[in-house]
């Protein structure tokens, strides 16, 4: 039986159709639309196929929701191949239109000035419950019609640092959230590559980041009065990392205004700040029709 980690690797491994044109498959991971992390991870992987350097930044816009029933075509434009930096533009195309676009920059690793914030003081992952254990404790609150999707295993393991609030009875909270994350199994040597690890990190960088800005309002992705969607996403890779080792993902929201929320993330591994993320999301309240 295929493991969840191998399923994720297969999802982020694209089929080459033509030079710089690739096809990725879609999976129903979060509902009717393609999960944004899937497109982020596949787009980064497509760009990585055109260079042997690791990525250092990605800047992306989500233009349309993706169809989970259809594959996605990724077209890579080679904008620059310099001595220090390589620049790529990626378009994700589905049903004849561009649903996502990204600029990706790659760089040769080099030594230089070195500084970082102090790593947060949080419990070790081994002392925390995983997401599945926490969800088991909430089953009595979960409506029968969504119980299967609520309990479905993710392709990565999450261990929240803070106490998890009942999502079916949300209350206002501070705009901060942290969890540990890694793949369920170690990545085998024959598949191990920097590009794959970065693509997996891009995939799980989208989990819960946008919803951090909902916390002060006592809302979440289940709130019936809320329309929410990712607008853009940026990732900065600072240092080498492994997606199959525990990563502390620390998130905070700084502002919600004009029906949008701005969220920042920092990923820590072995005391090193290895990755940073930024995402703005749509947070639009809508009227609920009554019978």
Automatic annotation (TrEMBL):
Signal peptide: none annotated. Coiled coil: none annotated. GO terms for biological process: acyl-CoA metabolic process; fatty acid catabolic process. InterPro entries: Acyl-CoA_hotdog, Acyl_CoA_thio, HotDog_dom_sf, TesB_ACOT8-like_N, TesB_C. Pfam families: 4HBT_3, Acyl_CoA_thio. It is an enzyme of class 3 (hydrolase). Keywords: Hydrolase, Lipid metabolism. It comes from the Bacteria. GO terms for molecular function: fatty acyl-CoA hydrolase activity. This is Acyl-CoA thioesterase 2. It comes from Acinetobacter brisouii CIP 110357.
